[in-house]
Automatic annotation (TrEMBL):
Intracellular or extracellular location(s): Membrane
Domain of life per record: Eukaryota
Source species taxonomy: Eukaryota, Metazoa, Chordata, Craniata, Vertebrata
Note on domains (UniProt): The DHHC domain is required for palmitoyltransferase activity.
Protein name: Palmitoyltransferase
Membrane-spanning residues: 21-47, 53-73, 146-167, 195-226
Reaction equations catalysed: L-cysteinyl-[protein] + hexadecanoyl-CoA = S-hexadecanoyl-L-cysteinyl-[protein] + CoA
Alphabetized UniProt keyword annotations: Acyltransferase, Membrane, SH3 domain, Transferase, Transmembrane, Transmembrane helix
Family classification: Belongs to the DHHC palmitoyltransferase family.
Domain called Palmitoyltransferase DHHC: residue spans: 97-242
Domain SH3 span(s) in chain numbering: 317-395
Lipid bilayer topology: Multi-pass membrane protein
EC number in record: 2.3.1.225
Length: 412
């Protein structure tokens, strides 16, 4: 019993450590600044609590904050759900359709992917989100999407408060001349006079909060639109990319096969209910999924195996001609390399002159691949990541390098 309590406490402490990351720190700071400033502006200078409208407005601001934080922490601490360690399908013959994860010592269930950040295979993985410092997947997809919806709505309300506060407070303080505009911040034009006058610092704070609110509305609103687009098709961001690569593979080899995404149930409402339920608990167990009529349970995993084999065929071997420290934005590798560093949390790999790398995809000034080494790690991890293109050259005498680098024509 004591051992069980210790394990629970350790897991809780580990979950709390998710807050100690730049993503949650920035996200919670933006929420705190916008919420606090909206309440202060409304109560002191725009819509006092002694009016019915002011009281309703204040309650709505608190309501936005509570709902945003509730879904944010749900997405962070509930987590996406992980494939059990050592999992394998009930029918042993189905193992041939699945990839095996050496790190988790289990087969990857349909729609699951291994996250290098979480170090686990995540059920129905959409992406690893730095803002919640966790993956978005099977169990927390609904909470994450609701957070993306509520945050812009709350920011729109807050932005309205900021704009109206500055407008009402500055309306009688602004005087226009022939060639100048003057703002007299020392005069309070309001009857009755506010307890705390709207001074220069209050104006600067409101303007700063307005910028945060508008920026969050645009950025998070776009993410919400992207999420709803894939949810209504019962896909994830990763599965959309797999489908795109399937079309590229079929076109590249000029095969007559047709890849049909198996989990799109045909109706947007049916797809919507796969994520959002009244109970808040998603349907299913995250390991087996309903498929459209005529589709195979392992259609997607079979396509993944084909793409993995195709990647090995079309990968290109390179040799390092310069040392590279593994820095995210290396100043010594040129300005173009510095300013075009991939905007991703995927790792960079350090290179020493003479190292061999098997490149699988690339950008104009960066490449991604696996370092070829005789050393094997105990946990089965491969040494792979991004590195500057100028640090390597293509190996001339390699039978596997006649093909064009897969992914160079794709932009990320």
């Amino acid at each position: 019993m004591g051992m069980l309590c210790s394990v629970i406490k350790f897991e809780n402490l580990h979950e709390l450590k998710r807050l100690c990351h730049w993503g949650p720190i920035i996200a919670l700071s933006v929420i705190a600044i916008c919420s606090a400033m909206a309440m202060i502006d409304a109560v002191l200078w725009y819509w006092p609590l002694d009016t019915t409208g002011g009281s309703i407005n204040f309650i709505m601001l608190i309501n936005w904050t509570v709902m945003i934080l509730y879904n944010y922490f749900n997405a962070m601490f509930v987590g996406p759900g992980y494939v059990p360690i050592g999992w394998k399908p009930e029918n042993s013959q189905d193992c041939m359709y699945l990839q095996y994860c050496k790190v988790c010592q289990s087969y990857k269930a349909p729609r699951s992917h291994h996250c290098r950040k979480c170090n686990r295979c995540v059920m129905k993985m959409d992406h690893h989100c730095p803002w919640i410092n966790n993956c978005c997947g099977f169990q927390n997809h609904a909470s994450f999407t609701l957070f993306l919806l509520l945050a812009p709505l709350g920011c729109i309300h807050a932005a309205f408060i900021f704009i109206m506060t500055m407008y009402t407070q500055l309306y009688n303080r602004v005087s226009f001349g022939w060639s100048s505009v003057k703002i007299d911040m020392s005069v309070a034009k309001r009857d009755p006079r506010p307890i705390i006058p709207f001074g220069l610092s209050a104006f600067a704070a409101s303007l700063f909060a307005l910028g945060l609110a508008l920026g969050t509305t645009i950025a998070v609103g776009m993410l919400f639109a992207i999420q709803m687009k894939v949810i209504l098709r019962n896909k994830t961001s990763i599965e959309s990319w797999i489908e795109e690569k399937a079309k590229d593979r079929i076109q590249y080899y000029q095969t007559r096969e047709t890849f049909v995404f198996p989990y799109d149930l045909g109706s947007k409402w049916s797809n919507f209910k796969q994520v959002f339920t009244w109970s808040g608990i998603p349907e299913g167990d995250g390991l087996e999924w309903p498929v459209r009529e005529g589709a195979h349970q392992y259609s997607l995993t079979i396509e993944q195996l084909k793409q993995k084999a195709d990647k090995r065929v079309r990968s290109v071997r390179y040799r390092a001609i310069e040392d590279y420290s593994g820095a995210c934005c290396p100043l010594t590798k040129g300005l173009r390399t510095f300013f075009t560093t991939p905007c991703t949390e995927e790792p960079r790999i350090a290179l020493n002159k003479g190292d061999l790398i098997l490149a699988t995809r690339g950008l104009k000034h960066w490449m991604y691949g696996d370092k070829i080494t005789d050393l094997t790690t105990d946990d089965g991890k491969r040494i792979r990541g991004w590195f500057p293109r100028r640090c390597v050259e293509k190996c001339l005498y390699d039978s596997e390098t006649d093909q064009q680098l897969d992914g160079e024509k794709k932009t990320r």
